[in-house]
TrEMBL record, chain A:
This is Uncharacterized protein. It comes from Actinomadura litoris. It comes from the Bacteria. InterPro entries: DUF6295.
Automatic annotation (TrEMBL), chain B:
Keywords: Hydrolase. Residues 20-244 form the Dienelactone hydrolase domain. This is Dienelactone hydrolase family protein. PANTHER family: ALPHA_BETA-HYDROLASES SUPERFAMILY PROTEIN, CARBOXYMETHYLENEBUTENOLIDASE-RELATED. InterPro entries: AB_hydrolase_fold, Dienelactn_hydro, Dienelactone_hydrolase-like. GO terms for molecular function: hydrolase activity.
Length: 96, 247
């Protein structure tokens, strides 16, 4: 299929795309046909800054297994660091 | 067979006067010919879409594929343009119709044009092909697995599009529909509902659903490619345009 749920998320950080580093403001997460991965469907993430134009984008296309492993790795990495170390204001973010 | 062609990027004045990039291919020979507007799929104005344009030129048609995401900026990669357009909910229907009208007019302005123009679209472009054929005076339309013609998209889908079934009485030309029996968007019951409505309205149409094929079975660069369905589908498309786009 060509369309599926798209989850948008506000992001704060930086990413490196085809034209170099840019400040990250937005993300979109969705399951759809990939551009490049040799799969019928993948979990796709666009890291973007729309204010800097469409080229301010870093894209990943992951299998479901890889996406879930990534989520787990992110949670483990955060859990192993002192709370708040990577938080915006130095205070721990609420963790769901 | 005289299959020499000119092919390359051009610019047309699209909906609202916007400068729209387009890929044009046409035979070198001087025989009168019909034109085909190719509507690319949601992943954008990619190499596979340009190959489809050249295939029509190799079979004697002039063909053009407007980059529907041109407005996302010049010098931007087609995949980045597609992601940006997707994030905005896709291309508005009115803009699509304007861009297809401009592409059709461009084809008719070329030397050796016989005045007949068909449209073909894949995936989201399948729905847009039907939309164009219900909005413009065209000579033939092909819908390759376009979803959301009969059913509305799921509430959480990114595309802000409405069903088009109520537009069916305005269908201006014969319609060829090519679908995968394993597709879920459009699912077989959605295809059957469109078929029934066109029959009820007395609209000339020809639908084929291929067993063992799902969505995007024409896409040679994707795992969804189904050679048997695609090869037969291409034969049907070329025969259909041969009947309806000749002078």
């Amino acid at each position: 299929m060509c369309t599926y749920a798209t989850h948008k998320v506000e992001l704060d950080g930086a990413a490196k795309g085809a034209s170099g580093w840019f400040t990250l403001t937005d993300g979109a997460v969705y399951v759809d046909h990939p551009q490049h991965a040799a799969r019928e469907h993948t979990l796709n993430i666009d890291f973007t800054n729309p204010a800097d134009g469409p080229s301010a984008r870093a894209a990943v296309e992951l299998t479901e297994e890889a996406a879930l492993a990534l989520v787990e790795a992110i949670q483990k990495a955060l859990a192993s660091a002192p709370p708040g170390l990577a938080a915006r204001g130095g205070e721990p973010a609420e963790r769901g | 067979m005289d299959d020499a062609m000119h092919a390359g990027t051009t610019t047309i004045s699209g909906h609202g006067g916007a400068e729209v990039e387009a890929y044009l291919a046409r035979p070198v020979g001087g025989a009168p010919r019909g034109g085909v507007v190719v509507i690319h799929h949601l992943p954008g104005y990619d190499a596979a879409s340009k190959e489809i344009v050249r295939t029509f030129a190799a079979h004697g048609h002039a063909a053009i594929c407007p980059n529907l995401f041109s407005r996302e900026g010049a010098g931007v990669g087609p995949d980045d343009q597609a992601a940006a357009a997707r994030a905005k909910g896709g291309v508005p229907d009115e803009q699509l119709v304007g861009d297809v009208a401009a592409a059709a007019a461009h084809l008719n302005s070329l030397d050796h044009a016989n005045g007949k123009v068909g449209v073909i679209g894949f995936c989201s472009g399948g729905r847009q092909s039907f939309l164009a054929a219900c909005s413009l005076d065209l000579d033939a339309a092909v819908d390759c697995y376009g979803a959301f013609v009969v059913e509305a998209p799921p509430a959480d889908a990114p595309l802000k599009v409405a069903p088009l079934l109520s537009r069916a009485p305005d269908l201006s030309c014969p319609l060829l529909g090519l679908f995968g029996a394993e597709d879920r968007f459009p699912a077989p019951d959605e295809v059957a509902a469109l078929d029934a409505e066109l029959t009820r309205l007395g609209k000339e149409h020809e639908f084929h659903s291929y067993p063992g094929a799902g969505h995007a079975f024409f896409a040679v660069d994707r795992p969804s490619y189904r050679p048997e369905a695609a090869v037969d589908g291409w034969k049907k498309i070329l025969a259909f345009y041969g009947r309806h786009l000749s002078a």
